[in-house]
Amino acid sequence: IDLSVLKPLNHLKELVIFEAGTIKNMSVLNELKLLEMLALKVGEIEFDMSTMQLPELKWLAINPGVTQKEFDGALIKSPKLEYVELIANDTIKSLQALSELDNLQGLIIWETVTDIPSIKELSNLKFLSLPAEHLKNRDDLKDIQQALPGVSLMATEGFCLGSGWLLLLFPLVFIFSFIVRNTGLKNKAEVR
Q: What DSSP line would sit under 60-124, residue for residue?
């Protein structure tokens, strides 16, 4: 897929590409300044995610081949991130960079959990999805629940990224968060 076809779409807010093989001209992403959601589950990407310049990004799905350096760099340059999804990535060993995201509300990890201690420090989390086999360990589950008492825990088993369910889930999460934010703003305005 050649992303240069996206150049005229400067108001694009969501980009989801699954099972596409090789993607060319990834640098076009940096021209999509209003992009809020980026999920690329593809074969080969010749693009250093740490060079992304997407200031409005709220949801980012991380591919299996993304390195620790790219992960850390992408998060630093995306301070508005609310949801991060790690897709079968065992090269990212430290999730410490997530603690710098003040707006982080959700973390979804598919298949490989590499850093539970950092996850337990994410006090802003409202939603955490981990592989089912990890949640089967009662001690780990209890530790996570004690460290993050208000978080909704869910197993990632049962869905796969190619299933289409997540394509429905992504917009629903955005709609729900928009409604919650707007309702909260109205309530604050009425109290004053």
A: EEEPTT--HHHHHHHHHT-TT--EEEEES--S----GGGGG-TT--EEEEES----HHHHTT-TT
| Encoded amino acid at 7, one letter | K
- Its pTM surpasses 0.90: no
Cβ proximity of 75 and 102 under 8 Å? no
β-strands 127-130, 59-62 pairing = unpaired
What are the average pLDDT values for consecutive 10-residue runs of the chain, which has 192 residues? 88 83 81 90 69 90 87 92 90 94 93 89 92 83 89 74 51 66 53 43
Rounded (10°) CA dihedral 132, 134, 140, 141: -10
Task: Report the DSSP beta bridge partners of residue 24.
Answer: 2
Residue 191 DSSP class: H
User: ∠ CA 85-18-174 to the nearest 5 degrees?
Assistant: 50
Neighbour-count burial of 81, counting CB atoms closer than 10 A to its CB (0-12 exposed, 13-18 middle, 19+ buried):
buried
Distance of CA 157 to the CA centre of its chain: 17
